[in-house]
Specification:
Layout lengths: L3 H9 L1 H18 L6 E5 L15 E6 L8 E2 L12 E7 L9 H10 E12 L6 H4 L13 H9 L3 E9 L12 H10 L6 E8 L9 H12 L12
Parallel strand pairs: 1-2, 1-4, 2-3, 4-5
Antiparallel strand pairs: 5-7, 6-7
Helix pairs in contact: 1-2
């Protein structure tokens, strides 16, 4: 898994710390409605959300290497979990360094229960941040996407957007703890220039619909060329 590059960059500069704080606030807010079940966090082991979940829930942190908070060492390309075993997946910057995310998303869909939630954050490819940081040597291999591109990609894997938010409008050198004003202004006037997006997606399988009795009768007539007998005739 390649997330260590993104995580290191966010941790080593003031702008990264700024947007990291906003992302964690977003995740904490959304997780309060998802307190129960088996919760898996992939990467960003220093971001801790254990205090949010009910005591009977299971909170697992997976990372590609051993850290202080790692529960399971595994790679995101081969998630070591049974089919439909995870209720909620927390995936900070999950797509930012994946050139081809199809195989990984198939794994994500496989382990999520029907109706399970995916909480995803990532760098917004249309955000203003790219004008200041994209040329840095440790960022040239990143693969940021826009929120719209991510939502479209997720639909192919039966993951549908239910909530979303743009975060991080503070210009480099001009952000501080009193950043609420610039965040409100950004969401109001230039949302697509935000540094990061936060998305909540739900796994929805294609539902099966039973054929009504009348439709079954018409279908039998067309196929067999005989008059359909109502189902209730058996009881007469």
């Amino acid at each position: 898994m390649l997330l260590c590059g993104v995580q290191n960059w966010l941790a080593k500069n003031a702008f990264g710390n700024y947007i990291s704080e906003l992302e964690q606030q977003f995740l904490q807010q959304k997780l309060t409605n998802l307190r129960f079940g088996t919760i898996l966090q992939v990467g960003f082991t220093s971001w801790q959300f254990k205090q949010i979940f009910a005591t009977e829930s299971q909170y697992i942190i997976q990372h590609h290497s051993n850290t202080e908070y790692t529960t399971v060492i595994a790679d995101v390309h081969a998630l070591p979990w049974r089919d439909q075993s995870i209720d909620t997946l927390i995936w900070p910057h999950g797509l930012d360094e994946l050139i081809n995310a199809e195989d990984v998303l198939r794994e994500v869909t496989r382990i999520l229960v029907p109706g399970g939630s995916l909480l995803l954050t990532g760098l917004n490819s249309r955000g203003y941040w790219r004008f200041f940081y994209r040329r840095q040597s440790n960022l040239h291999n990143w693969q940021p996407r826009s929120a719209a591109q991510v939502a479209s990609l997720m639909q192919k894997h039966h993951l549908f957007l239910t909530e979303g938010q743009f975060l991080g409008y503070g210009l480099p050198g001009c952000y501080s703890k009193n950043h609420q004003t610039i965040e409100l202004m950004g969401n109001r006037w230039w949302p697509h220039l935000a540094a990061v997006y936060g998305l909540v997606l739900v796994k929805r399988d294609i539902p099966l619909t039973l054929i009504p009795d009348q439709a079954k009768s018409r279908l039998a007539t067309n196929i067999l060329g005989v008059k359909a007998v109502p189902l209730c005739a058996q009881d007469q």
